Amino acid sequence: MIYPIVMYGNSVLRKRAAEIEKGTDLIKLVEDMFETMHAAHGIGLAAPQIGKSIRLFVVDGTTLEDEPKLKDFKKVFVNPTMINEEGEPWGFEEGCLSIPNIREKIERPERLRIKYFDENWNALDEKFDGMKARIIQHEYDHIEGKLFIDYLSPLKKRTLKGKLADISKGDVETEYRILAPLKK
Ligand code: NI
């Protein structure tokens, strides 16, 4: 099942998402999240982006041809806890399925360590760097109620105000189904 993707302006994107009760069957939801993400050509999708305020996100970088390091990078993160982030911050132009057609250069630390469960409730504790770390940082922010545009300067944010208002109203072109909070 493909969910519509929640647009910027919806309060679900601003909540700290809730822990999922251990043992909950997540198989169908995870499948639907991958399906939704793939339909929108995304490489990461967090549960709040389909209107569910729970600590779950999926990533899949295996389709990025110019990123050979991501060829096995298809994962599910359940109840993740960021243990640390370190290393020289580096910039990359990020985008977000909930903020279509806006891309901005964002600086993030190079490496991280994260504890999480997979969809079968196996406990994991892993380190990631480079683009893998960046995708995880972006998605982890989603379950903390944070968006990539929060890192922009006030000036830059002001220049995007009109576009963001349009997105909230659903006045934006996407190739996927959206749920805009202020759509009339
Ligand atoms: Ni995003």
Structural description of this entry:
With 184 residues, the chain is α+β, with helices and mostly antiparallel strands. The protein has one domain: Peptide deformylase (Peptide Deformylase, Alpha-Beta Complex). It has three helices and nine strands; from the N terminus they run βαβββββββααβ. The strands form three sheets. It has a five-stranded antiparallel β-sheet with strand order 2-3-4-7-8, sandwiched between helices. The chain has a two-stranded parallel sheet with strand order 1-9. β5 and β6 form a beta hairpin. The radius of gyration is 16 Å and the shape is globular. The mean pLDDT is 96. The site of nickel (II) ion has 5 residues, from α2. Nickel (II) ion binds next to α2.
Q: Would you kindly provide a brief summary of this structure?
A:
The protein is 23% helix and 30% strand.
Secondary-structure blueprint:
Blueprint: E1 5-6, H1 27-39, E2 44-46, E3 56-60, E4 74-86, E5 90-96, E6 99-108, E7 111-117, E8 123-129, H2 130-143, H3 154-168, E9 178-179
Parallel strand pairs: 1-9
Antiparallel strand pairs: 2-3, 3-4, 4-7, 5-6, 7-8
In percent, how helical is the residue content? 10-25%
> In the CATH hierarchy, what is the class?
Alpha Beta
- Span of the ends, CA to CA: 25 Å
CATH homologous superfamily assignment: Peptide deformylase
The largest sheet has its strands arranged as 2-3-4-7-8
Key terms:
binds nickel (II) ion, 9 strands, two-stranded parallel sheet, single chain, 184 residues
